Amino acid sequence: MTTSPHSRSGHFRGLGRLAAEATLGVTELVEAAHATIAAAPGPLDPPPAGKTRGISRVVYGSVRGVTRLVGGGLDAALAGLAPALGALPPSPRREALVAALNGVLGDHLEATGNPLAIRMRLRRHGEDLSFGRPGSPEGLPGSSRRVVLLVHGLCMNDAGWSREGHDHGAALERDLGFEAVHVVYNSGRHVSSNGRSLAELLETFVGDAAAPPGEIAIVTHSMGGLVVRSALVAGARAGHAWPALVRAVVFLGTPHHGAPAERLGHLAQAALGVSPYARPFARLGRLRSAGITDLRYGNVLDDDWAGDDRFARHGDTRVPVPLPGGIAFFAVAGTTATEPVAPGARIAGDGLVSVASALGHHRDPERTLALAPGRTWIAPGTDHLALLASRAVYERVRQWLDDAGAGGVAAQASPGDRA
User: Fold this and answer.
1) Which of 190, 286, 339, 364 has the least CB density, counted as fewest CB within 10 Å?
2) Which ranges constitute the DSSP H helices of 239-351?
3) Per-range mean pLDDT, top range of 17-26, 310-319, 338-347
4) Whole-prediction pTM value?
5) % helix / strand / coil in the chain, to the nearest 5?
6) 7, 10, 11, 15 alpha-carbon torsion, rounded to 10°
């Protein structure tokens, strides 16, 4: 039975399932640590099987059995009470927490059918757009049908674009006449899975909406840029119509070649696995979602991860994905540095993404994204989240999209864009 995460039943069922799963996970971890201590292996010896013996094994088994029984009973009871419990009132705080939870555990939530798993959808002014069904209302009220699509990053949602009294989407509506549409998605899924879903969603949107867009500009933040690149590949392979409507794409702090934080987390997990006494706790590192591990190198395609243990140690094996032609691409990198740096000096990143990664630079020419110098900018004194609030960043985005809209893609595209 599927229950909406916006209903009280769905909300509490989702939390109940996570509580039961967390109890089972902790029980497994404690038993593995208990078994290791009891076996007393040497510091670098292979670990024991992870199961205790005798009465201890009975106790741990009983804990697991009771947890499954209680969890299953609670889930069934809440499902049956769904009509009586009704819907939850709107709550930006709760939606933000669910978005963060999806970023960390979203692949698990989806695989287990947890009601808290976010379904990809398009939103405008905080409301889901309805299209693709008979009698669907017109989602876009304007006449120009110039849509700016905003695609958020890891652990975020559409409300995250509004920061410190500024919203890039709302400002583009005001200044350039765009109609801002937000993509909301489960950022814990693989980037390529979300890319494929976004491609299918946009194809339905432009084909079945009562008021489809005539042209699309896309502004992305962080992981959202990888999802859009993946969607463009998926859309082209499927012969979709929507990519031909895309005039410009702006990347804000997108980790095109990965984020150092995920690589450090991967190394920490590997280090815990060296000692048999610490190895049970390395399981905690495997809680990272598929979306997070995709950020190690910036995966865009299924081929970048399919068939591999995403927690195993290996190098960058991604298939190079150049930017498609016919679209004007732009990129902004943030740096926490506020003072000018000498030519050739290393520039600090935005705290999560390096400048080189955000601008698509790579030591391998095949992996480098061919962005013309006039289409990249480094925002000084701007951290990763401040890219969403910075007026200077907005002015750069506004000018780029204004120029791309006025001159058309043919006039704006450079040879690098068609690499």
Assistant:
1) 339
2) 260-272, 290-294
3) 310-319
4) 0.77
5) 50, 10, 40
6) 170
